[in-house]
Amino acid sequence: MFKMKKILIVDDSKSYIHIFKSFLNLYFNDNISIYVAYNGTEAIHQFKENNPDLVLMDYHMPSMNGLEALKKIIEIKCDSMVIILSSDDSIRNKALKHGAIAFVPKRKRFSMIMDLINDCFNKNLEEIIIK
C-alpha cells in the first residue's frame, strides 16, 4: 500500500510557499500532504504535530531562524530529513554541521530541488549529502 509522503515547508514568504506547494503537488500528482509554517517557532509546532517525512526550511525568518529550528527538530528526532533553502550561502556549512541533509541556494531551479526531494524519499542519502 502506498504511504502518502508528508512535507513541511517553512518560509516567511507566502508567495514562495504558494509556488513551492504548486510545484510539489504537480510533481507528486497531489499524492502528498503539505504542511506550512511561516517561522521557526511554527515549524517546531508543525513538526511535533504532523511528523513530516521531509522539512524544506528557509534560513532567514522572524521569531526563530531556520538554523535554530533545525537544531530543535534534530533534538526531537535525530534522523529527520531537513533541507535548508536560502539565498545566504554563508550558512551552508553551519546547516550541514547541525544536521541538515542538504543546503540548496534558493536561486536553484525548482526542478533540481524536486529531484533532491525525490532522492530523499527514495533514501538516496549518499547522493544527497554529496550535492
Structural write-up:
The protein is α/β, with parallel strands linked by helices. It has a single domain (5-130), classed as Response regulator (Rossmann fold, 3-Layer(aba) Sandwich), CATH 3.40.50. 46% of the residues lie in helices and 20% in strands. The protein is built from six helices and five strands. The protein has helices at 14-27, 40-50, 66-76, 92-97, 110-121, 125-130, and strands spanning 5-10, 32-37, 54-58, 82-86, 102-105. The protein has a five-stranded parallel β-sheet with strand order 2-1-3-4-5, sandwiched between helices. The longest helix is centred in the first third of the chain and has 14 residues, at 14-27. The radius of gyration is 13 Å and the shape is globular. The N and C termini lie far apart (31 Å). 29% of the residues are buried.
Outline the biggest β-sheet: 5 strands, parallel
Number of strands: 5
Distance between the termini: 31 Å
Low-pLDDT regions: none
Secondary-structure-based class equals alpha/beta
How would you spell out the order of helices and strands?
EHEHEHEHEHH
Shape estimate: globular
Helix content: 40-55%
Topology:
Elements: E1 5-10, H1 14-27, E2 32-37, H2 40-50, E3 54-58, H3 66-76, E4 82-86, H4 92-97, E5 102-105, H5 110-121, H6 125-130
Concise structural overview:
The protein contains 6 helices and 5 strands, in the order βαβαβαβαβαα.
